[in-house]
Design goal:
Elements (H helix, E strand, L loop, with lengths): L3 H4 L7 H7 L8 H18 L14 E4 L3 E5 L4 E8 L2 E13 L2 E6 L2 E5 L1 E8 L2 E6 L2 E5 L5
Antiparallel strand pairs: 1-2, 1-9, 2-3, 3-4, 4-5, 5-6, 7-8, 8-9
Length: about 140
């Protein structure tokens, strides 16, 4: 029996040949370039999906916290959310898609989460508060 791996490393039966044949690009790299451009285009589209907060919703912008939840809403429309409940951690990071009443929707395309706002931002003795998903949040002053 002939060992093709050692005798001729680029025959159809050899391991190096089979590994080269499985590459996701051809010898000129055209398929890899197409894949890379597609990936870059998707990243740009996802980055551009965030809608800036409407003027009447600017009170939502800022860092909001409680002992179990952290919520950052930027004026440019990006949302970072983290909640720890009974040892289980949940996080959502994405663009703000829309407001539905006081609630807001975060996500991309069909992958989205609706945050239920039972009490929109309001001031209580000089401190901003908001209730999201049943948790009362306090707005963190800028620079803190």
């Amino acid at each position: 029996m002939r060992t093709t791996f050692l005798a001729d490393p680029m025959t159809e039966r050899s391991l190096p040949y089979r590994l080269c044949a499985m590459r996701p690009y051809d010898s000129k790299g055209e398929n890899m370039r197409k894949w890379l451009w597609g990936f870059v285009a998707c990243c740009l589209l996802l980055a551009g999906c965030a809608k800036p907060l409407p003027p009447d919703r600017l009170a939502y912008a800022g860092q909001w916290r409680s002992s179990t939840m952290s919520l950052l809403i930027t004026e440019s429309g990006n949302v970072n959310y983290k909640r720890v409940d009974g040892g289980v951690s949940k996080s959502v990071n994405g663009p703000l898609q829309a407001f539905e009443g006081d609630n807001f929707v975060v996500g991309v395309g069909p992958v989205k989460t609706t945050f239920v706002v039972s009490m929109p931002p309001y001031q209580d003795q000089g401190t901003w508060k908001m209730t999201v998903d049943g948790v009362e949040l306090t707005k963190v002053p800028p620079g803190e």
